[in-house]
Each structure stands twice: as C-alpha cells, then as structure tokens.
Fold this protein.
Amino acid sequence: MSKVTKQQQLDQIMTDIISDKVCPELATTATQMVFGDGDPDSELVFIGEAPGKNEDLQGKPFVGAAGKFLNELLASIGLTRATVYITNIVKYRPPNNRDPLPDEKDAFLPYLKRQLAIIQPKLVVTLGRHSLNCFLPDLQISQVHGQPKRYNGQVYLPLFHPAAALYNGDMKQTIIDDFANIPAILKLI
Ligand code: URA
C-alpha cells in the first residue's frame, strides 16, 4: 500500500473541519477556509491569528500587507514562503477583522495541534499574542518575544505580529532583530 503523504494527512484535517462543522457562523460569513500554505516537510511553522480580507478572498494565509512584510522577513534570513509552512489558529475570517473569540480559538486548537503533529517542525514561530497564548497561556509577548521556549517537547519562538509591527517603528526593528536569530535557534535545537 502506498504511503499517505503529509499533504494527504493535512487535507484530511480540512475535510474534518468541514464535516465537524467547526464555527459554523464563521464558515457562513467567510468566503472559504484558509487552512495553511507552504511545505509540510519544513522544520519551521509560522502561526498567526486568523485570516483577514485578502486571505479570505485568496484562500491563503498572510497574503495582504502583513504577509508582504512576513515575506520580507523570511527573505532576510534566506527563506521563502515555499520553504516554510504558514497557518493560523482560526481558519475562517472573523467578520470585520475582529479579534478571534476565545471560543473560536478553542474550537480550532485541536485541529492546529493535529497539523503540528503531522508536520513535526523543529520550531513553531508564534505571531502575536493570540498565537503565543494558545500554547503558552501564562506568557506575555512583550516580555518573551525573541526567546525560544521549550514546552512538552516542542520549541516555540514568540514574535510580535507582523501586522502590529508594520506600522510601529520600534516593534518593527524588534521583529527584524528577533527574526535574524531564527537560523541560530534552529541550529541549537
Ligand atoms: N493576520 C493573521 O494573523 N493571519 C493572516 O493570515 C493574515 C493576517
């Protein structure tokens, strides 16, 4: 029997999200599910909050202004988005770009954990406080950004959210500096 690829296993999670009717209201207001993008064999996974307008229309995470900045950050360490895997906690766009609700994050978390169990990345980079606090609820992004944290056998790197950093000079330099350490952190793991 042929081996089931990681992509096929990830596709099964997408199917399950639909058949399990996760967040049916969001599913109704969204154009489509934004599940994830990139290389499922990558050692690096980036996790944001939820799709915005552009992501909702294109069906891919981080394709708007924050995504353009994320692409630049990846290029600054010699990577492209095709060589990493990018996803969000919540897979449908919340209406009017509101923050994802606690119930919505909770509803999607088991599926996100399954994604990670399939990909088995060396490093999970959390983008913003929502993503950090899904995995490490007691930590504050302003205090721990840029510091790798090992928890239950997985290493996490908390970073500011590129959308927040984009229009804030200090935060922008901080995320650029924190990003520059990713290659060294990967070598240490
Ligand atoms: N912000 C996010 O958190 N995720 C996206 O996909 C786009 C913007």
Q: What stands out?
A: The chain has one domain: 6-188. The longest strand covers residues 154-159. Residues 28 and 73 are 33 Å apart (CA to CA).
